[in-house]
Write a structure and sequence with these properties.
The complex is a heterodimer. By secondary structure, chain A is α/β, with parallel strands linked by helices. Chain A has six helices and seven strands. Chain A is 44% helix and 18% strand. Classes of the chains: A alpha/beta, B mainly alpha. The interface between A and B is medium-sized, with 17 and 19 residues.
């Protein structure tokens, strides 16, 4: 009798554990689905083309210090265009922060414009006190940014390496990926691959 | 007549489900008001009243299920409540409105109305009916109590997992381009 009771209790505990694992797995599938959300279909490509030298602008950061954008420097630069009123921008800030830590020799510059008070609120909320945060309409106008959140990657020589609408961490990663592939965009990469014979591409 | 273990574990699971449903409705009243409005079953003027009353009723039912004196009444109310909700989903599905959010699991997890939800609610209806059945009177040991709580817990976990599973289905269909 004793053995049966012990076995019964053990089975219940294991069943609870199994249900927890099942729940965890299904949750993870849900998270994966939200991470592979469709990319921005709208490609409003204006401004400088990828592969050319980036336009040079100097704009003051929120303390009034001048920040040079588009000049040759020791580090690559990632411009992240955001607005305090855009929820997707806010959700991407942690990804940008982790990226600025993990990618070597990368300066991240947050660019926005509008009311200073709202920016202060966003900066405290997201913990961006130590980041370079430029509040100026000039940068966005020079790079002709029409949609947010938008990111631009400029290399050490001042060449515009990649740019695009970023809606998720994956889009952000893809900016760095294009640099690795040596093609300005994924579309160009696929095109180059199909043109060269002998390489199989999924249709 | 059923064994008290089956009845009590069903009651516990039902009570937790109702309490959690009430909690996200009370925490996001604006979201729930829009949800009630989207179902388009209640005249516009009554929407704010219904959006207030539903979560409170759910909370009362959740509490009522826990005491043996109020259990039969709360059980009947729970059964009616779930049937009403199932009917609301069925009516909107019949109208062909598959694009509205079902509002099943709080604002964090959106999912469109789909027939699978009817099956899920049917499961809840069965649990509510089990809770209503008369109980065999027998003395309960410590082990009986343990089994009741464990079974209730497993039911809640499996219900939550099923809920998430149903919510993931349309996302998968969208990915494979079937929708």
């Amino acid at each position: 009798m004793q053995a049966l009771i012990v076995s019964n209790i053990l089975l219940w505990l294991l069943l609870i554990a199994t249900s927890l694992v099942l729940l965890g797995l299904i949750r993870q599938i849900g998270v994966l689905h939200s991470r592979i959300a469709p990319a921005g279909a709208l490609m409003l490509d204006k401004g400088v083309e990828v592969g050319q030298s980036a336009p040079q602008v100097t704009a003051p950061d929120r303390f009034g210090r001048p920040i040079n954008i588009g000049y040759a420097s020791e580090h690559s630069t990632l411009l992240f265009f955001l607005s305090p009123t855009c929820p997707i921008c806010k959700s991407l800030i942690p990804a940008i922060k982790s990226m600025s830590r993990s990618v070597k020799n990368l300066d991240v510059i947050y660019v926005s414009d509008g009311d200073a008070l709202e920016h202060d609120k966003l900066i405290t909320q997201a913990g961006l006190e130590k980041s370079t945060y430029v509040v100026s309409p000039d940068v966005g106008m020079t790079y002709q940014i029409g949609k947010l959140p938008y990111a631009v990657l400029i290399d050490k020589a001042g060449t515009l390496k990649a740019k695009g609408l970023v809606n998720s961490r994956e889009h952000l990663d893809s900016l760095f990926e294009t640099e690795l592939l040596g093609s300005p965009s994924l579309q160009d990469y696929i095109k180059a691959q199909t043109e060269s014979p002998g390489i199989h591409t999924p249709s | 007549m059923i064994d008290p273990i089956i009845s009590t574990s069903a009651v516990l699971a039902l009570s937790v489900t109702f309490a959690s449903a009430a909690s996200h409705k009370l925490r996001h009243p604006g979201w729930f008001r829009r949800q009630v409005h989207e179902y388009e079953l209640i005249p516009g003027l009554m929407v704010p009243v219904a959006a207030r009353a539903l979560p409170i009723a759910e909370l009362v039912i959740a509490a009522g299920l826990l005491w043996s004196t109020s259990r039969p009444y709360a059980g009947v109310l729970a059964f009616l409540m779930i049937s009403l909700y199932t009917l609301a989903i069925a009516i909107n599905l019949a109208r062909g409105r598959k694009d509205i959010d079902c509002g099943c699991s709080g604002p964090a997890m959106q999912q469109p109305l789909q027939p699978a939800l009817l099956a899920r609610n049917l499961l809840l209806v069965i649990i509510a009916l089990v809770a209503l059945l008369p109980i065999i009177d027998r003395p309960l040991s410590l082990h009986d109590n343990f089994v009741m709580i464990a079974a209730g817990l497993v039911m809640v976990l499996l219900y939550t997992a099923t809920d998430l599973w149903i919510a993931n289905r349309p996302l998968l269909l969208k990915l494979s381009g079937e929708k």
